[in-house]
Write a structure and sequence with these properties.
The chain is mainly α. The protein has helices spanning 2-60, 68-86, 89-104, 110-125, 130-150, 156-175, 185-191, 197-208, 212-220. It has 9 helices and no strands. The chain is globular, with a radius of gyration of 27 Å.
Length: 221
């Protein structure tokens, strides 16, 4: 009877074993599905930003005279929509869920790098209110429009209020990343991750020590 009971249990053990063996595969499949969703979300954000860039190009090239206000409003709305998608809680949850999967991949692989950079970008962007993105974009368009009129007349005075507003918005942007050692650090980090005003100053101090010939070689290489 004992042997009969053991034999009767074997199919159940086999079934349990198959379930256990299949679990990692399902986890991988789930991670790959989430990665597809992440790429789709990031693609939509990129497309919205690209549409805003097209309008920016249009303003600088073929925009009819008198269209600056409309272009500025349209760009501001597109960049705000892109930002709102970029800071959506669902996107953050998705990135967090993919963190372990990304760490299991080769560090320099495309997918691991995508997850890592998406996480960094998300953590930065959630600090910035969508309203700031919209206001800064609208101001950028207005400033460019004013510059196109002031430049031919060499009218610097017209641009002073726009430059002052640009400085205000830049400082406001930095305020979302306190504490920092220099007000320019958040902006520099956007352009070159990990760089700061101090490290940039050090870099240029080192370049000043190079002879003209070595400096030319440095930039060629």
């Amino acid at each position: 009877m004992r042997h009969a009971r053991l034999i009767a249990r074997k199919p159940k053990l086999a079934t349990r074993s198959r379930r256990t063996a299949g679990k990692p595969a399902r986890n991988r499949g789930s991670a790959e599905q989430m990665l597809v969703e992440l790429k789709q979300r990031l693609r939509e954000i990129s497309d919205l930003n690209a549409a805003g860039d097209v309008l920016n190009w249009d303003q600088a090239t073929y925009m009819p005279e008198g269209g600056a206000d409309a272009r500025g409003r349209q760009r501001a709305m597109l960049y705000r929509l892109a930002h709102e998608r970029a800071v959506a809680p669902a996107l953050g949850t998705l990135i967090d869920a993919l963190a372990h999967y990304g760490e299991s991949l080769p560090y320099d692989s495309d997918d691991a790098s995508l997850i890592r950079v998406a996480r960094r970008d998300y953590q930065k962007k959630i600090k910035i209110p969508p309203d700031h993105v919209e206001r800064a974009t609208a101001h950028s368009s207005a400033s460019y429009n004013a510059w196109t009129r002031a430049r031919p007349a060499n009218d610097f005075a017209t641009m002073v209020p726009y430059l002052e507003r640009t400085l205000e918005l830049s400082r406001e942007y930095s305020s979302y990343f306190v504490p920092y050692k220099h007000v320019a650090d958040p902006h520099i980090d956007d352009a070159d991750e990990g760089m700061t005003a101090a490290s940039t100053r050090t870099l240029f101090d080192e370049l000043k020590q190079l002879s003209p010939a070595r400096f030319k070689d440095f930039w060629r290489n």
